[in-house]
Amino acid sequence: VSAPLLILHGSEDKVTDPQVSQFLYHKASSQDKTIKLYRGGYHCILEGESDERILEVINDIISWLDVQSVINKN
After folding, report:
1. Alpha-carbon Rg for the chain in angstroms
2. Strand 5-10 and strand 33-38: pairing?
3. What predicted TM-score, i.e. pTM, was given to this entire model?
4. How far is 1 from 15, CA to CA, in rounded Å?
5. What's the pLDDT tens digit per position in 45-66?
């Protein structure tokens, strides 16, 4: 992976091991990469979580996209 990369993962995910996301992050050749592990989060971090958690994830996505839009303008 060499494109800008955003990885979001719940630390308590029982479907996909969070270490797989950490491995992908470290192996990705992208210079622009971000990983965020949500402590206590499960597999569907935008569904079945508290409203506060869902807003946190959405805000993280929007913030990352805002940064990308500035980087890609230059």
Report:
1. 13
2. parallel
3. 0.88
4. 23
5. 999 999 999 999 999 999 999 9
